[in-house]
Amino acid sequence: MTTTTHQAPARGEEELRELAAAGARELGAELSAEGIVPVDGEADHIAAIRWVAENFPSARIAVACSMADAVLPALVADQVPGVDVLFLETGYHFPETQGTKEAVKFMLDVNVVDVLPKLTVAEQDEQHGKDLFSTDPTACCRMRKVEPLADALKDYDVWFTGVRRDESPTRTNAPMVAFDQTHKIVKVNPMVRWSLDELTEYSNTHGLPVNPLLSDGYLSIGCAPCTRRVAPGEDPRAGRWSGTDKIECGIHL
């Protein structure tokens, strides 16, 4: 696990709320018609990342990455070299996801931080029953994703996510910048207006690491036991927790 030591002091909640509101005003609730169309000579995502770089010490900035692709870490690292990239090491990832993480560590100027749950898979099986993901996926996500991330984000004032509005109905109105009520820090979604095709094109054009599962029908990649291929025409997240009414792990709700 890669770790990092933060030297910059944390800002108070009120100051972070004010910064988030200022960022929303500066960037605008609605910028361009599409995520990669320039606005006043600068694309939406670049403007959002630049705003963070100018308003926050680099040691207080984090990027969340599932290792489906490396577009977001690459974009942020262009303006914040050595930025912390948080990877939720659940213990259930596909080998392809682990391979993508290693490629990101090797190819990009980032610091990959493995965010670990309190319990190993074996300890969770012993305490909560084997394969909790099949009997209570919400509890499994909470212990292996939601709670570990919440603990990790206490070290930061702002975090970037790769949330896009086209991913699911629950993300249709996701803002570009807002105060995160759950974690009490600023949350920035610079690629919120991108489509999957735009993301794929950008990744290919710039030769970035990409999870090979994306080209094998896995349009939204999570833990192996809870992810299946998506059929043509299906919602990109239809392969997550298939057969249940669950569509989010809980991080972005």
From TrEMBL:
| Residues reported in the UniProt entry to bind [4Fe-4S] cluster | C140, C141, C223, C226
The record's annotation in Gene3D superfamilies points to: HUPs
- Kindly list the cofactors needed: [4Fe-4S] cluster
Q: What is its EC number?
A: 1.8.4.10
Q: Which InterPro entries match?
A: PAPS/APS_Rdtase, PAPS_reduct_dom, Rossmann-like_a/b/a_fold
NCBIfam families, sorted: cysH, PRK02090.1
PANTHER family the UniProt entry points to: PHOSPHOADENOSINE PHOSPHOSULFATE REDUCTASE
Protein name per its UniProtKB record: Adenosine 5'-phosphosulfate reductase
Q: Per the UniProt entry, what species is this protein from, by scientific name?
A: Kocuria subflava
What's the gene? cysH
